[in-house]
Each structure stands twice: as structure tokens, then as C-alpha cells.
């Protein structure tokens, strides 16, 4: 409708501009011949051509730079949860690499604005769908001969008795604890993928993802990074559960995405750890964020949560040897980028008179999300 209105307006404008010229040109036929007519018309139409060009430029969607891949090299990739934190960064990487990407998301924790810069691109498709209504992607993978990548988690190791955790470790998980649904859910997802691979011959890749942070994190997800940054920026106490001596290893999202793409393109069918082997205590992490934000917030110690893993650090020798992958973004550099992102989010939300408060790390379920 907008294009039609613009076209009608331009026609009206051309008619109003050319009409006087036609009269003058009619006189010019008698006086100077047909050359004068063409000259007058060109003079009248030239500004209109420029206006049309400006309008076309203003209505043309500008996309991030995308490589051109031949039909032979270009893949068609479906990402469930592709509008979420990690999924949207993976979408960006695959789109810019020149592949065709279809994102499926119910926008419960994901957001359309995470992928809105691709909407309308010929290589991109967005589907609003909740996987509670099954998509049967495993059957789709079998039918079209596709490879299936499962985004698993370090939570499959539970509160580990082996340190650092390698892919051969079977884990130490409380099956009836407050985190059991997530931990055991991811473990059974791995089980089902490998069972389907053996039964139907579908290629499977499994990434065990350790703590990841970066832009587009949900501000109220209750995770340790978003909690600490929001608390520091807003002058709230930084809440540490227990003594803060429990350890975690944090990687920036771009490192994870590069690892996922490398794994997807590899021939490694067994699980692979993707994480940063640089280990920090939760207390050290809180103090580092407080320092980077230059915050006056104090650190508040709360009772230790049930089943909170005491040590968490990935053994990434397999990824380094077989994928040639390891994290390259320094912790402070990644944190500064994430702090800038949250600062902008707070500014936008302050304009709407809404200031988010960090969730109390899902304490109703008995355990904070320090992982």
C-alpha cells in the first residue's frame, strides 16, 4: 500500500511539473523545433529521477555483509531457538558465511529484535512456533540427509567428582534435586540423539557448552553474569551464594559460536566440550565485575544453595586436537562488551520508566543459576 501511494504521488508530481513545460514546448515546436521539447522534458524530469532514487535508497533494507556461496557449498540450516541469546549469534555467523538459515522460536526467552536485521533477506526465514507442538526435526534430518547438532551443557556432569571434566566422565547428578529436570533433560537428550543415530543412521554432533556470556543475554534470566552486571550497574548488592569459593569457567559468546560451527562441519560424532578452561571463583568474578563497572555496590553473601556444583572447568583437549578450536577472547574484553550492552539496555528501559531487577536466581526452586 505504501509503494502504491508513493507511486501515485510521484505521477501527480510529474504531471504538475511537466504540464507547463508542455505548453512552452508546444510554442518551441513552432520556434525552435523538437530538440527544445526533449531538453525541457529532461530538465523537468531530472529532479524527479533524483527524488525516486532517494526514495528507493531509503526503502532498501540494509543487511550485514553476506558472503556469496555457490549452490554446491551453501547449506540450508534450521535453528530451533534461533532468536535467543546463543541462537541469534549462531544465526548471524551462518548468515554472514553465506548459508540459508531458518529460525524457529516461540519468543518466550528469545526476542525478534535479536534477528530483525535479517528479516526480508532472501537467505533468511523466521517461523514463530513452539516446540511443544513437535517439529520432528530428527525425522526431517533423516528424510533430507541432514546432520543434527545438539546444544547440550556442562550440567550433564552435575556436581563433578572429576576435575577438570572431560567427555569420558559420566557425571554426578542428583536425579531428584532442584536442578534435576534440566540436568537429566539434557542427559536424556544426548541419549535419544545417539539412539536415533544408531537406529536410523542420522549424523549427530553434541556440544557440551560451559558457561557462556555476551550481548543479547536475557536481563532477568537469573544467571550469575547478568545478575552481577545488573546489580553493579544499578548500585545493588552483588549476591553470592555460599562462600563464593565455588568455581566456574566463562567463555564469550563469539568463541562458542565458532566452536559450534567447527563441530557442525566436523566428522566427530562423540560429545565435545566447548568452554574456557580459565577457572575463577564466583567471588573473584563478582569482584572483577564490580571493578570493571566501577561500582560502589557491596558483596552480599546468602545461604549456599542445594546441589550447587563446587568446581566446574572444561577439559578442551579434544576440541583443540580435533577441531583446532580454543577460546580467544580475554575474559575482561568480553565482560566490557557485555557491560556496555547491559548499560544500553538499562538506558532504553529507563526511558520507559522501567528498571529491571535481577531475579533471585530461582531460589524458589532451591538453587541459584551460578552455571
UniProtKB/TrEMBL annotation:
How the protein sits in the membrane? Single-pass type II membrane protein
Q: Which residues form the UDP-glucuronate decarboxylase N-terminal domain?
A: 1-64
Where in the numbering of this chain does the NAD(P)-binding domain appear? 78-137, 145-338
Q: Where is this region: Disordered?
A: 350-371
Q: Which InterPro entries match?
A: NAD(P)-bd_dom, NAD(P)-bd_dom_sf, UXS-like, UXS1_N
Protein name, please?
A: UDP-glucuronic acid decarboxylase 1
Q: What family name appears in the similarity comment?
A: Belongs to the NAD(P)-dependent epimerase/dehydratase family. UDP-glucuronic acid decarboxylase subfamily.
Amino acid at each position: 500500500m505504501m509503494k502504491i501511494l508513493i507511486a501515485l504521488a510521484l505521477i501527480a508530481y510529474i504531471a504538475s511539473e511537466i504540464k507547463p513545460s508542455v505548453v512552452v514546448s508546444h510554442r518551441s515546436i513552432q520556434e525552435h523545433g523538437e530538440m527544445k521539447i526533449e531538453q525541457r522534458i529532461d530538465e523537468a524530469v531530472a529532479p524527479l529521477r533524483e527524488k525516486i532514487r532517494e526514495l528507493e535508497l531509503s526503502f532498501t533494507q540494509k543487511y550485514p555483509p553476506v558472503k556469496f556461496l555457490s549452490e554446491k557449498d551453501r547449506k540450508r540450516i534450521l535453528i530451533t531457538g534461533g532468536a535467543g541469546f546463543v541462537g541469534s549469534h549462531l544465526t548471524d555467523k551462518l548468515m554472514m558465511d553465506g548459508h540459508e538459515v531458518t529460525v524457529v522460536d516461540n519468543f518466550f526467552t528469545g526476542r525478534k529484535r535479536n534477528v530483525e536485521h535479517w528479516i526480508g533477506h532472501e537467505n533468511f526465514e523466521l517461523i514463530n512456533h513452539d516446540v511443544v507442538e513437535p517439529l520432528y526435526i530428527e525425522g526431517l534430518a533423516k528424510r533430507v540427509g541432514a546432520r543434527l547438532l545438539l546444544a547440550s551443557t556442562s550440567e550433564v556432569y552435575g556436581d563433578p567428582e572429576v576435575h577438570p571434566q572431560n567427555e569420558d566422565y559420566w557425571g554426578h547428578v542428583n536425579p531428584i534435586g532442584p536442578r534435576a529436570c534440566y540436568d537429566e533433560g539434557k542427559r536424556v537428550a544426548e541419549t535419544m540423539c545417539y539412539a536415533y543415530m544408531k537406529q536410523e543412521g542420522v549424523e549427530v554432533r553434541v556440544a557440551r557448552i560451559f558457561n557462556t556470556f555476551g550481548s543479547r543475554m536475557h536481563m532477568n534470566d537469573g544467571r550469575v553474569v547478568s545478575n552481577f552486571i545488573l546489580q553493579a550497574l544499578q548500585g545493588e548488592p552483588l549476591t553470592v551464594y555460599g562462600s563464593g569459593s565455588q568455581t566456574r569457567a566463562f567463555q564469550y559468546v563469539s568463541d562458542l559460536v565458532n566452536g559450534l560451527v567447527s563441530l557442525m562441519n566436523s566428522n566427530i560424532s562423540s560429545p565435545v566440550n566447548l568452554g574456557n578452561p580459565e577457572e575463577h571463583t564466583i567471588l573473584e568474578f563478582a569482584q572483577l565485575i564490580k571493578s570493571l563497572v566501577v561500582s560502589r555496590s557491596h558483596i552480599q553473601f546468602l545461604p549456599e544453595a542445594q546441589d550447587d556444583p563446587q568446581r566446574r572447568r572444561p577439559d578442551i583437549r579434544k576440541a583443540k586436537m580435533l577441531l583446532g578450536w580454543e577460546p580467544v577472547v580475554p575474559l575482561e574484553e568480553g565482560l566490557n562488551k557485555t557491560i556496555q550492552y547491559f548499560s544500553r539496555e538499562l538506558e532504553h528501559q529507563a526511558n520507559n520508566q522501567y528498571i529491571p531487577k535481577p531475579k533471585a536466581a530461582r531460589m524458589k526452586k532451591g538453587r541459584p543459576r551460578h552455571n
